[in-house]
Amino acid sequence: MKGLMLKVGVLLLGFFSVVGYANTNSGLSLADYARPVQFIDIKISPQGDYLAATSRDDEGVIRLTVLDVQSRAVLSVTQLRGNESVSAFHWVTSNRLLMTTAREIGALEQPIATGELIAMDADGSRRVILTGPRSRDGNFVFAELVDILPNHNGEVLISQFSMRETQPFLDLYRMRVDSGRKRSEGRIPVRSYRGSQVQLLTDQTGTVRLARGVSTENPNLVVMLYRANARAPWVKISEVDELEGGFIPLAFTHDGNEVVGLSANTTDTFSIARYNFETNEETLMLAHPQVDVEPLFSFRQGRPSEVIGASFELEEIEHVFFADGTQEGEAESLLRVFATFPKQQAHIHSATADNQLQILTVQSANESRQFYLFNRESNELELLAQSRPWLQGVELPHTKTIRYTARDGTDILALLTLPNNVKSGDIPLVVIPHGGPLGMRDSMGIINLEAKLLADHGYAVLQPNFRGSSGFGLAFERAGLQQWGRRIIADIADGVTHLANEKLIDPDRVCISGASFGGYAAVMSAIEYPELYQCAIGFSGFYDLELMFTSGDLPQSDFGMAYLRRVLGTDTAALRAQSPKHQAQRLTRPVMLVHGGRDMRAPIEHLHHFKAELERHELPYSELIKETEGHGFYKPENNVERWQRMLDFLAEHIGEKVD
């Protein structure tokens, strides 16, 4: 077996400057932590001639750069006009790129997807707007790429829906990427709800044969439709409760007679299974008894093709492959590559048409995302870019997985980040519950810079995967339903108790801080467990559960209302018993409230309602409001201010130990 050669390239690493350091353990400043990702995406062209990369400069402007692979010469740099930016891109021919765009709208800081598709050549020429009101047809539609159709040079398959309707159908078109001329490929008989998406899956010929989306009759149900070919009628093959898992299609087999997907029909966790359309039967391929698995794809013709393996995360990230026939060589080479990055999340991200050159992404809770060019023939692996190059060589606090037992005996996995070179037992703790709570978890596969920042300033950080978190099976996730202020925050509290019993932290210096649902959990935890927490910080939090049914983007659709009824319940007494607004009089710990004035998920009325109750009961609080921010802060300078205020608040309440 040939050995793997790793080298560091100079393709992109020298494009931008790195800002200076400050007086923290790592030498990083708050501005360093707040800097958005610099290298966003890198993809290789089908013939391997060009690399395209989106990157953000020191002013925050996003550019699309195309380089020659051999000479590393820059062929073009594209920056859209005014308040527009490139949000994603795809190679659709050997020389032509398709871009999707985002635009800053009104006073909102974070750009919003426009649904426009723009194409251009690698050298930046022949740029044309293909869809949307500025295109040749002028239609007010939202378009997305479905398939690059590698065997139809110059054509792609797109979906689009009318932005003038609240529950539109999806229409399919084959579109020329030089002119935007389209011809209809039919309509998908599943509506696109606000807050939900229709998943479309093409076979090896580029024909959409599977569609999966929310039922038009019952927004709690997910339907999957199938057709044998482009002329065959659509047939419903499944209809399941969204919280019962079901089958999520991933990729057709090469012969098109079966589809491989994630399934929870026969297992509590999501496994990888193969579904046969003739027999309507599933065959289990890979399952883990405790955690969900995630697919690993092979690439054919420059696009994800077949599922050849999976990754899963318990205490660590692991990769396994199940390959046969033509897949064996690819699985063997990937095993060697992934062994170079133990305990990290690795994926093939882009590949040439012959699959000999691949762009790999590698990341973990302790490493920002990195892009590598892998040459399968020479077995060379070249580092192209790091998403945050200013972190290169910096010794950040280390994050690891821990396990603890909740009060009822349930095992809980959590991430723990400790300061470098600090004695255990005397460390103040900040607990960070994640958002969601459904559909989210804290993972060793992605870095959390806020956890690193806090540990860099001397705090231990606990990120518990409480009940309701995804990734640990359906029963574990369902156990969080209608338990926001009960079982979930009890699981969080049990994590604090565990660290105290293990003498890893100072139990008299504990604060809890979170965003979105995590902001709710932080404030509600301080109300329910004042003996554990000395303070709480809520960021973009929900503080009035009844208000969630009437304000914000969720109640604007049947899908969103159904979600709220399932997740929160409809019993008024229970909602009020679990709402910080209605329990404010019980709060005995200081709170800091941070919010964006344009938040559509948790509108600022949540803060105003809770603040009014705090003032009515003459309870102290501090606040930070940014009127032009949404659900979370987008501007780096706003996050710097938020973190500085947060560090001051923590220092005041759990900082220096008083003997």
What does this structure look like?
- The protein has 659 residues and is α+β, with helices and mostly antiparallel strands.
- It has a domain at 399-653: Alpha/Beta hydrolase fold, catalytic domain (Rossmann fold), CATH 3.40.50.
- The protein contains ten helices and 36 strands.
- The strands form eight sheets. An eight-stranded mixed β-sheet has the order 29-30-32-31-33-34-35-36, with helices on both faces. Strands 1-28-27-26-25 form a five-stranded mixed β-sheet, with no helix packed on it. The chain has a four-stranded antiparallel β-sheet with strand order 2-3-4-5, with no helix packed on it.
- The radius of gyration is 25 Å and the shape is globular.
- 47% of the residues are buried.
- The model is unreliable at 13-23 (pLDDT under 50).
- Residues 449-656 form the Peptidase S9 prolyl oligopeptidase catalytic domain.
What tags apply to this protein structure?
eight-stranded mixed beta sheet, AB_hydrolase_fold, 16% helix, Rossmann fold, five-stranded mixed beta sheet
Give the helix level as a range of percent.
10-25%
Instruction: Give the helix/strand class.
Output: alpha+beta
Strand order of the largest sheet: 29-30-32-31-33-34-35-36
Shape: globular
For the terminal residues, how far apart are their CA atoms? 62 Å
Q: What is the CATH homologous superfamily assignment of the domain at 399-653?
A: Alpha/Beta hydrolase fold, catalytic domain
Q: Write the CATH architecture name of the domain at 399-653.
A: 3-Layer(aba) Sandwich
Low-confidence stretches: 13-23
Individual helix count: 10
